[in-house]
Design goal:
With 462 residues, this protein is α+β, with helices and mostly antiparallel strands. 27% of the residues lie in helices and 28% in strands. It has 10 helices and 24 strands. The strands form 7 sheets. It has a 7-stranded mixed beta sheet, sandwiched between helices. The protein has a 5-stranded mixed beta sheet with strand order 21-20-22-23-24, with helices on both faces. A hairpin with a 2-residue loop joins strand 13 and strand 14. The radius of gyration is 26 Å and the shape is globular. The two termini are 31 Å apart. The protein binds glycyl-adenosine-5'-phosphate. Glycyl-adenosine-5'-phosphate (GAP) binds next to strand 11, strand 14, strand 17 and helix 7. Glycyl-adenosine-5'-phosphate binds next to strand 11, strand 14, strand 17 and helix 7.
């Protein structure tokens, strides 16, 4: 098992470089020097992220009878976040360096670099002069309405720091508008915003990021058991998207280190190339949140149990995952380099993203063997059109087929289809109407009739 300090900066550099070169992830506003802590997903990154969110939604909402979805607003009423304790209470400890003017998260100094040359961790350089830690507010606010004056406190709204709160404040509406009983969950995917002091490790700690959260409401006596069940469900999920169990670590967060509202929290951590870091928290939040909103709003948020005739505030188990962090874990896990012998008998390094097919941004590459052969091109285009309603397809006729395979390997396309002279029947009737399918991982090839392609692929990419 890797320890917390095991890192591989060279591997990380290669991953970052591939992500930019092939259009997975770009620095936001790079043209203008970059907006720190913000990232844009390029065409392949957007597909990958969408695949992750779709699969999470399918497993969490569609395939379960006890979880409903919602999509809350990002702009959040200040009273919601006052009641939850975020306004005035959501902060990280920060220190300033009087010499280099740097600002650092005080609880993470050992992983940061100071502004002195040669750089060491803040406080270690002989010229460093750090202040005492003070609380730095992580909340991002804005003003709403055309008439909002700069100092009208009522016009202040917040960009939500977690998606959870809109679920808590809508729990009663969801309950009343659906025939559902405890235990049940509400799931949401959406953007959250935190003014992180030191955004770092690529997309890992950002100021704008996406969360995939479930608030699972239950009777008080079921909270601990459901926390264990959700932990297992979430671990299984990571396996299904290509993050194997042996690379995940479970941190049973000890008393005193958990959020004040939590009776039990597991952090699911992954062995990133920059160290073992949190992907998701599975927290038993008790009745804290609903209780707070009931108190602050003055509205009755109790659940009425028809069978036992009891009224009570439901307890909540919360599996809360970071979408961007999971995308990064999937990318880090998929990245591989191997030495192979190419068609010319020479050794070369093959870079291959070994995404599980359901996560791969492009599912299938389609190539005519010869781009000048009109019949091959026509069949390719026909295949492309027939597959496009079902999956992302990439047509490529540039350069030797071997080079086209390498380009698809580098972005993780699990299958490539080649239309050749056999397809046209030029080498006999046996292979007429068949195409070559080449497998990314083994590089092995097989032939398949064109009409069998769609079901063959669908079986492998879901
Ligand atoms: N509702 C509970 C909650 O928000 P959290 O541990 O603060 O708990 C949950 O966040 C998940 O959101 C984290 O495990 C992480 O995956 C993701 N996350 C939190 N802050 C992040 C940041 N600054 N950048 C990227 N992802 C972040």
């Amino acid at each position: 098992m890797a320890n917390k300090d095991t890192t591989d900066p060279v591997r990380m550099e290669k991953i970052v470089s591939l992500c930019k070169r092939r259009g997975f992830i770009f620095q936001s506003a790079e043209l203008y020097g970059g907006l720190n802590g913000c990232w844009d997903y390029g065409p392949l990154g957007a597909e990958l992220k969408r695949n992750l969110k779709d699969y999470w939604w399918r497993k969490t909402v569609q395939e379960r009878d006890d979880v409903l979805g919602m999509d809350g607003s990002i702009l959040t009423h200040q009273d919601v976040l006052k009641a939850s304790g975020h306004v005035g209470g959501f902060s990280d400890p920060m220190v300033d360096c009087k010499t280099c003017k740097g600002r650092f998260r005080a609880d993470n100094l050992e992983n940061l670099e100071c502004g002195q040359k040669p750089s060491c961790k803040p406080g270690d350089h002989k010229n460093c002069e750090l202040t005492e830690p003070r609380a730095f507010d992580l909340m991002l606010s804005t003003k709403l309405g055309a008439l909002a004056s700069d100092n009208d406190p009522k016009a202040v709204a917040y960009l939500r720091p977690e998606t959870a709160q809109s679920i808590f404040v809508q729990y009663k509406n969801v309950l009343d508008s659906n025939r559902i009983k405890l235990p049940f969950g509400i799931a949401q995917i959406g953007k959250s915003f935190r003014n992180e002091i030191n955004p770092r490790n690529y997309t890992f700690r950002s100021r704008e990021f996406e969360q995939m959260e479930i608030e699972f409401f239950c009777r008080p006596e079921d909270g601990m058991r459901l926390t264990e069940e959700w932990l297992q469900t979430r671990l299984d999920f990571y396996g299904e998207i290509g993050v194997p169990r042996e690379k995940l670590h479970i941190l049973d967060v000890p008393d005193g280190e958990r959020a004040h509202y939590s009776k039990k929290t597991y952090d699911i951590e992954y062995e990133f190339p920059f160290g073992i870091q949190e992907l998701e928290g599975v927290a038993y939040r008790t009745d804290y949140d609903i209780g707070k909103h009931q108190g602050a709003s003055g509205k009755n948020l109790e659940y009425f149990d028809e069978e036992t005739k009891e009224r009570f505030i439901p307890h909540v188990v919360e599996p809360s995952a970071g979408c961007d962090r999971t995308v990064l874990a999937v990318i880090c896990e998929a990245f591989d380099e191997e030495e192979i012998t190419n068609e010319k008998g020479k050794s070369e390094t093959r870079t291959v993203m070994r995404f599980v097919p359901r996560m791969a941004p492009i599912k299938v590459g389609i190539f005519p063997l010869l781009k000048k052969n009109e019949e091959q091109v026509r069949i390719c285009k026909e295949i492309q059109k027939s597959l496009q309603p079902w999956m992302t397809v990439f047509y490529d006729d540039g350069g030797a087929v071997g080079r086209r395979y390498r380009r698809q390997d580098e972005v993780g396309t699990p299958f490539c289809v080649t239309v050749d002279f056999d397809t046209l029947g030029e080498n006999g009737d046996d292979t007429k109407g068949t195409v070559t399918i080449r497998h990314r991982d083994s590089m092995e090839q097989e032939r398949l009739p064109v009409e069998a392609l769609l079901p063959w692929l669908l079986e492998r990419i879901r």
